[in-house]
Amino acid sequence: MIPNLNMTRATGVEHVWNREQLSWQPQLNSWGQTSVAHIAVAGDSSGIIGADAAALSGQLVAWQQLARLGLISPEDADNHSQPLQQKLKSYQGLRRFIDRLYKPADALRKPEQPETMVCRCEEQTRGQLKAAFDQGHGCPTS
User: Fold this and answer.
1) Backbone phi, psi, residue 59, to 5°
2) The domain containing residue 138 runs over which residues?
3) Residues 118 and 98 occupy one common structural domain
4) pLDDT class of 71 with cuts at 50, 70, 90
5) One domain for residues 141 and 71
6) Is 81 strand, coil or helix?
7) Which of 14, 19, 60, 105 is the most buried (most CB within 10 A)?
8) At what angle do helices 51-68 and 74-101 cross, to 10 degrees?
9) DSSP for residue 123
10) pTM for the full predicted model
């Protein structure tokens, strides 16, 4: 499983590599704020965190946005979010355990056979992609 990064990539949000989940994810602060002003991310677009943690991250983003809009004070946002932050940290500990327990084997992540389908949408095999890279193509648009 990987986070849905379509929107965060399209808006220029900075991403970081998550070694435990073996995927990219948006770089966020504890409120879900991204590197782009006025863009915050919650749920599985922020990383694979599970349904309960995703709901908590949505609440944290909402408290931050209410404070940023001046509808509540930053102190009120902090007070309301502290229990949510603590609960989210407990979920993140469990997530790290699950990520380590179910880490996919390298053989499943790095196919060796040229006929292995790598991209179902574009119907591209490992062999086809390797041939394109060998010709100097570095990404789908080059």
Assistant:
1) -65, -40
2) 111-142
3) no
4) very high
5) no
6) helix
7) 60
8) 160
9) T
10) 0.71
